[in-house]
Amino acid sequence: MSVSLDRVRELDRHDPLAGFKRRFTLPEGVLYLDGNSLGAQPLAAREAVAATLDQWRDDLIGGWNQGWFDAPERLGNRLAPVIGAREGEVVVSDNITLNLFKLLGYILERRGDGDGGAVLSEGGNFPTDGYIAQGFCRLGGVEHRVLPEGAELADHLDGVAVVVLSQVNYRTGRLRDMAATTRRVHEAGAEVIWDLAHSAGALPVDLAGSGARYAVGCTYKYLNGGPGAPGFLYVHRDHQDGGWQPLSGWHGHAAPFAFDADYAPAGDITRFRTGTHSALAYSALEASLSMWGDVDMAALREKSLALSALFRDCLADLFEAHGIEDITPPAAERGSQVSLVDADNGYAIVQALISRGVIGDYREPGLMRFGFTPLYLSFEDVWRAAMHFREVVESGEYREPRFHVRGAVT
Amino acid sequence: MSVSLDRVRELDRHDPLAGFKRRFTLPEGVLYLDGNSLGAQPLAAREAVAATLDQWRDDLIGGWNQGWFDAPERLGNRLAPVIGAREGEVVVSDNITLNLFKLLGYILERRGDGDGGAVLSEGGNFPTDGYIAQGFCRLGGVEHRVLPEGAELADHLDGVAVVVLSQVNYRTGRLRDMAATTRRVHEAGAEVIWDLAHSAGALPVDLAGSGARYAVGCTYKYLNGGPGAPGFLYVHRDHQDGGWQPLSGWHGHAAPFAFDADYAPAGDITRFRTGTHSALAYSALEASLSMWGDVDMAALREKSLALSALFRDCLADLFEAHGIEDITPPAAERGSQVSLVDADNGYAIVQALISRGVIGDYREPGLMRFGFTPLYLSFEDVWRAAMHFREVVESGEYREPRFHVRGAVT
């Protein structure tokens, strides 16, 4: 190792975020570099779920009057500062797929395009964003186009009404410039929906400051809301003044308990609610979100980049020697992950690491992803993970047949 | 009281379902007649959620390979026998609102109507069923019609492609004849989507035997899955052979982990999945569903009708004397609730009952609803609830000003 253990312990001693690790429970012997898929468990989430179980048992239907019903907007307001949004601009609801559908319908109705501009999806983005755009366009009679991976967005905006972009690409970890891109899309007369799945909680996001009007995201990755925790949806406050969203359920009605015969959308962000949501899932997320008020987002970003840099510094010579391609973008364009490609051995290396308790993940073809979550990873954790990576590759243990059996879904 | 306590205790001693009460936890001093809104907590649900919290903590992302990912179809198969469906015909997913949207899109695409038959909603049905039909039709360019409350369905099927009907009406508790109605709709060349919110777990439902092709429902009422537990969706196995559903997310893809650029719907019931679901919510429901294998549905129906009959028998003279209208349908057309109307005092009576620990609910205008859940209500419970009802009305205590302050949302 080119970096000594003493040095990384020194980094940990000066880490202003070090105290957050104690707010999570991680299993013994595990070095978890997959918080970009599912965040670790905050102690507070566990306690909150137990309290909600008590509430279901004791208050029964009364629980809906005691915090459950308003949770989508309350949690939205709690999440807002983490992503640069303001009170009343965020609602926690359903999942990314469904929230994209709602925004596509809302934006197109609001624009009232007679000529029906196209919906543009991003090639190489997480597939569900394109899938739901296809489903929306098929039903709504709207043209669907795909931006080829790596193509210049500005060259593909003619005739486009809405484009869906990820702020951080799930494979490469590349970070888009939200402000510049938003400006360019608006100048072309189109709207952009930002997918924050790999940026919310991973780095400072400045929705309002970037001029972004629409966004969606999930809460089970860097926000640690639990497996399958609900998604969120953001609409800039100047763009909440009209229009239906097509998934018009009773919780999004202007007066949900009036039981009117006709749908009338709520005048605010709650129009994006659909039906009854899980009080258990929301309580875990609410507790997880509660810690973000204490997080200095600039310190988070600094540590995130320092952790990914440490991992790469420890292994640069190994990558070179073993033909592992490091496609991690430079710091200014990096999310909070390191992405490595080894088409022949990537899968086996990740499996061998997992058997040592070092959890990363693998995506075809050849992509090894390692996520760096500053709230519960120490510099020493990352240093040790890099040490395991080196041993796995140098020893050739990944060549053992058991590491080559493919069957896992994640 | 016209029925003696000895008599109801005798009924409890001979109740074949009496043992199920021990599998639930209900708070001391509460008589809960609102299981038609939110079911009580099964002990098993609590334990299952704790186990899922352990799994999140210990297995982290690995949990998705250990039962979380397949939960929508596994729970669907567990639920199937309770509603007369078969393996592979039910998936647990999202909520009723969203599941209706999926089925409307799927059915219309499958029919390929050039002339675009209308969607018919039922006046007086739970509002979200009409709201989402409106949203669907607005986006899809489909005509939306409403069946006037009380009108003869057969007179309103001309030019209709799909009708959405509740098997049991949420206000009156009236039970439709599913087999006869389905036949009539099919004869008119239309399809029917059944909403089972107030029938699944409340009485024997025979989807396949009734010739029903499509249904949706929720699991937080008579199925006791917890607050906001996920919804379900049924498609008859002979009608799963094609077509998109418009909420085309990655979990409904034929190969969700291939990360293909284009959407291709799964060939089976899993096409109705959208995105990532809450493992916590699903685990509570799975445990709750586990008890249904032991339930004799004929005995459940018999007890349900006996409980509602007991409540009415105890109070018939009181209703007469105080001008309370009992709109509960006759047994053969009854769900599992008693519905009473008192436009002047209904709200205050329900509030006074709640303050005594007798939980029913109130819907404008004037409707008092009392749900009878055979798994955790004894005959003595119902008898005592009726005694409280009598005392509240005869004493006039509901006239106290504190019972007239309206503010609650449920």
TrEMBL record, chains A, B:
Any matching Pfam family: KYNU_C
Reaction catalysed by this enzyme: 3-hydroxy-L-kynurenine + H2O = 3-hydroxyanthranilate + L-alanine + H(+); L-kynurenine + H2O = anthranilate + L-alanine + H(+)
InterPro entries from the UniProt entry: Kynureninase, PyrdxlP-dep_Trfase, PyrdxlP-dep_Trfase_major, PyrdxlP-dep_Trfase_small
Top enzyme category: hydrolase
Keyword set, alphabetical order: Hydrolase, Pyridine nucleotide biosynthesis, Pyridoxal phosphate
E.C. numbers: 3.7.1.3
UniProt modified residues of type N6-(pyridoxal phosphate)lysine: K221
Requisite cofactors: pyridoxal 5'-phosphate
Presence of keyword tRNA processing: no
Pathway assigned to this chain's UniProt record: Amino-acid degradation; L-kynurenine degradation; L-alanine and anthranilate from L-kynurenine: step 1/1; Cofactor biosynthesis; NAD(+) biosynthesis; quinolinate from L-kynurenine: step 2/3
Residues annotated to bind pyridoxal 5'-phosphate: I96, T97, F126, P127, T128, D129, D195, H198, Y220, W250, T276
Task of the protein: Catalyzes the cleavage of L-kynurenine (L-Kyn) and L-3-hydroxykynurenine (L-3OHKyn) into anthranilic acid (AA) and 3-hydroxyanthranilic acid (3-OHAA), respectively.
Subunit structure: Homodimer.
PANTHER family the UniProt entry points to: KYNURENINASE (PTHR14084)
Entry's family note: Belongs to the kynureninase family.
Name this polypeptide is given: Kynureninase
Originating organism: Halomonas salina
Gene this chain is encoded by: kynU
